[in-house]
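Inverse folding, one chain.
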């Protein structure tokens, strides 16, 4: 057990996911971003621990990524009590937000069985440190950062304008 305590939580979480989804050939989780965007990993993780909740083949073969993500989040909410913290449209992208995925997978980790072998952790340590980022993923990250900056700027301007309006209403200008 001492070996498990020495590894970081992200490696343990990734090891747990890989170990849980090992029997699902369509699923290969190597990170907490692009590996989750098609919805298969979330559903495989749920199905591996609770196969009684849904028919894997129906979900894997007949639904779009957004539908599969929505399915997984609804199953987790209804049967495991995990709030729907993510929007399927936000995850069904080339590079979903890593922190959001980690937070949601951690929620699943807290309610599902958590047996992680040292072999699974060693397997994760052998994965490439940085998976190749495609041009499309770089562009999307750039657009997300730009959008975030624009929202911050807009929020600042809105609060500034609102404070000026409030001041002018409080202290009317006399003619």
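Residues assigned per position:
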């Amino acid at each position: 057990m001492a070996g498990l305590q020495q590894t970081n939580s992200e490696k343990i979480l990734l090891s747990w996911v890989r170990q849980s989804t090992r029997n699902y050939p369509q699923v290969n989780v190597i990170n907490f971003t692009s590996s989750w965007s098609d919805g298969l990993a979330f559903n495989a993780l749920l199905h591996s621990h609770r196969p009684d909740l849904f028919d894997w083949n129906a979900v894997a073969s007949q639904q779009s990524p957004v539908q599969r993500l929505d399915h997984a989040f609804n199953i987790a909410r209804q049967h495991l009590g995990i709030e729907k913290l993510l929007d399927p449209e936000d995850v069904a992208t080339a590079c979903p937000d890593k922190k959001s995925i980690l937070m949601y997978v951690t929620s699943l980790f807290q309610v599902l069985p958590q047996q992680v072998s040292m072999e699974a952790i060693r397997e994760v340590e052998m994965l490439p440190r940085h998976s190749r980022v495609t041009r499309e993923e770089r562009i999307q990250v750039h657009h997300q950062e730009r959008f975030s900056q624009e929202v911050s700027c807009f929020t600042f301007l809105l609060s500034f304008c609102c404070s000026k309006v409030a001041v002018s209403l409080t202290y009317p200008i006399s003619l």
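The domain at 2-132 is CATH 1.10.418.10 (Actin-binding Protein, T-fimbrin; domain 1). The two ends are 79 Å apart (CA to CA).
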